[in-house]
Amino acid sequence: MRRGTSRAKPALRAYHPDMDAAPDARIHLDTVITPERSLSVTGFKVLLCVLILANLIIGTFFLTMGAWPAPIFLGLDVLGVFIAFRVSYRRAATRERVVVTADQVQVLKELDGKTRPVWTSPTAFTRVDLERSDRYGPQVRLQLSGKRLLIGQALGPKEREALAEKIEQAILSARSERHPPPPQEPGGRPT
Fold it and tell me: Which residues 6+ apart lie within 8 Å of 139 measured at CB?
């Protein structure tokens, strides 16, 4: 590659071998759920610098008083904050993708450019359930023959309700594509 040129990033595309069975299948829904970060990378660096500076001042004060173990614990405090934010940013990099076609409903987890399927079910038998809970708010679940999968945990309550509605509409649309209603006579009765 020549200097000064850049390659375009590949489009985010979910892949699963089962999807090759029907390459012309119409996609009724392809949505990606990503968690929002509460603090940008720049904000994290500023926070960490302020925390280190404050701990250095406090640690120096304790050292002058003769409390030599205090700076060790202050250093562990900074390390704990650093690890907590790294874990948070790692979880924020995880994407959840829901794909609905006439043949199947798939949920894929995407992390570090790798995609792995966590749910595959026939569209005709998959149900969307929106469970209401006082403690956690609405929970969106896909269901099939006793199997259940909780999705959309990174979303807020209103977004979860909207997600459940979108998936339900996509499944109904996919079912009607695969099993169209019977033709009707001009009088309105099925033939």
Answer: 130, 131, 132, 133, 150, 160
Owner of token pair 């406090």: 58
Residue where the block lists tokens 């829904």: 29
CA distance readout (Å), 115 to 16, 96, 119, 180: 8, 9, 12, 33
39-59 residue pLDDT tens: 888 998 999 999 999 999 999
For the chain, what are the domain ranges?
A: 17-35+94-178, 41-91
Backbone dihedral angles phi then psi of residue 70, each to the nearest 5 degrees: -60, -45
Over residues 132-173, the pLDDT tens digits come to 887 878 899 999 988 999 998 888 889 999 999 999 999 998
Could you tell me if 106 and 19 are in contact, meaning their C-beta atoms sit under 8 angstroms apart? yes
Any idea which residue has 């992390």 for tokens?
A: 111
The domain 17-35+94-178: what is its CATH number? 2.30.29.30
Residue 2 main-chain phi, psi, to 5 deg: -75, 155
Cβ proximity of 131 and 141 under 8 Å? yes
